[in-house]
Structures
1.
Amino acid sequence: MSGFTYNITPRTEKPELPTTLGFGQYFTDHIFEMDYSPEQGWHNMVFRPLANFSMHPATMFIHYGQAAFEGLKAFRQNSGDIVLFRPDKHFERLNNSSRRLCMPDVDINLVTEALKELVKIDKDWIPSKAGESLYIRPFLFGTDAVLGVKPSKNFKFVLLLSPVGAYYPEGFKPVKILIQDEYVRAVRKGLGECKTPGNYAASLLGAEIAKQEGYTQVLWLDAIELKNIEEVGTMNIFVAFKDEVVTPQLTGGILSGITRMSVIQILKDRGYNVRERVLSVDEFIQRYNAGEVTDVFGTGTAAIITSVGELKYKDTIMPINNGQVGELAQSLFTYLIGLHMGNEVDRHNWLQLVEAGR
Ligand code: COI
């Protein structure tokens, strides 16, 4: 099978999952990794026990951030089937991020096969409660040990697995979000549409400032005029007005979310007037004051659907649905969880089977 090497340590007992998983705090027993060199392409494809990496202190990605990652999920359905949600789209996006960062593509069939194999190896770690899942973190980084600024020639690709629950400490309760107008996350034609560490590093200070004010997250504005709503950083944003559902259009500065793409399709299937367009804070505030905002929510692999209960811009505080979960956010959340768990028909073939249940 695809030249994989197995260095597996089977468990004698099933892992005991804590009642509250949180996000990204626990890891399964094994990872998959492979290396890239210009001479051999991707090689050394191995499943091995989770352990620390050993790296030269000059390893390039540590200094210059030549790295990209993804986040997708595996679910254990009510039937016992284990499925992945849209792995093809996630690996396509990884390759898009890699190209912008002068890194090699991965073969999508090969990494999907490796992923299914790794999920099977560590399947006892997949939680079975609705809302919980096995979060998958594929990542890729430059490994040359050189201090000159240039693309690395050699790379490592890794699949890391983590059983998770809700991303935000609030669970599915609405989050409070601060619209940030001092710092920016990313600029059009920069790296904004790449899933790369630098974008997350750029978001940390703004997020800390928001936290000090009692806000869970930051809503970023466009970096040129600080006028248009872009994204939250850990999720894309949707605003439901009385006559349309709007999400900011992909400008090159925004991550092209897979959940965003799926939610747009679900809304179209339901007959909503859904539009990807420029949405300025001014328009939002004006329509909010006119009573036209019916719901605000975020979408993301980690966040699934996260209801927004309050937005703050400068000194203006705008509660949404009196701080309660909106109807649309609730119904999308219920639908997506139902799809993950196998209770909804997978009409667009978004799920890929890893292993059939007994
Ligand atoms: C995801 O939704 O998968 C993300 O990558 C968001 C965050 C955890 C980085």
2.
Amino acid sequence: MYTQFHCVRENKVIVRNPNIANLKAGYLFPEIARRRREFAATHPSSVRIISLGVGNTTEPLLPHICAGLVEGAQRLGTVEGYSGYQDEGLLELREKISEVFYGKKFSADEVFISDGAKCDIGRLQTLFGTGTKVAVQDPSYPVYVDGSVLSGAAGAWAGDGYCGIVYLPCTAENGYFPDLSLVSENSLIYFCSPNNPTGAVSTREQLSELVKTALSKGCIIIFDAAYSEFIRDPSLPKSIFEIDGAEQCAIEVQSFSKPAGFTGVRLGWSVVPKALKYADGESVNGDWTRLSGTVFNGASNIAQAGALAALDSEGVQEIRRLTDFYLGNACLIKNALQGLGVSSVGGDNSPYIWARFPGRDSWDVFAEILEKYRIVTTPGAGFGPSGRSFIRFSAFGRRADVEEACERLKDS
Ligand code: PLP
């Protein structure tokens, strides 16, 4: 009976989504976790493995922000304070974000609260569809490429990258800012500053060049500013909207994950300006409102209460304290690498350090660092072809772990 049913099922089974089949490898971080587990199983030792690999936060929520979350949860338990679906987000929070991050430049209906930047990046792909040309910084945060593959925009794997994607190499030679003449007309450009993984932060002049390119070539920039709160140099822009003309060619995605420790709480936002239009003059903001209302039912009201606490004066100070802490870790790692004679960028205005191993393959260096120091890192190749000879060190870790890891590097 079962066999008979099974045969019928096999004949009629739905075909696999070819876009998913097109995804080249498993997502980078599960692969690193797999290699770590395999190493631990085959190399038993009393020396524990320390991770400087993933960008996951480790520090507890700070008290004022945490109290905001608790109060938000308690309010839901009262008749007066109860709230249900909030669609694009609490009006008060959207207004506060516009005030704190954009000098009130945007109206509340241009700020969309999300459950995180990564989720919005994934959903944003749907706006542009299968035929869109895509350009990404190389190396880049994997979801830009993988999301483009899932939406069908990336085309097939061609040995070193996807044929539908223009990779914009960011190398030591070009100061980790790409040659924008490589961007084709009418492309979607993914751009991240402070950058994950390189830790490089684009200057005002560089972002002006990016906006100028997007305007002249009819492109739209998806600007990922998830690490803006790590910027300490006041001359460096924290948002693409500090650049004239960006409202006509950019969407910004943002996150409370790293600055407020909300990686598990989940909250972010996207700014989709009303001035941003498609070729036919239709409003991107209008489509995003429609699309979000269709596939997303809003972020947690509790998380939004926490975000409001994070953006008042006490919350902003806590964000500064938390980001200072991680930047302190970054400084320790950078110094340890310098002591080893390894050259690196990042870590000053960002929580990532991009270490250079000329002529080496990053997965080999990853394996060597794991074996020699029992430290997990992230191989640069996982972020794109230009990351082949780099290793990313993450400053997200407990201080004692970072100090111990740095001692091990020094002792070598
Ligand atoms: N953007 C970049 C560049 C990131 O590195 C990350 C997380 O590591 C995210 C977005 C994800 O943000 P969220 O936690 O808000 O989804």
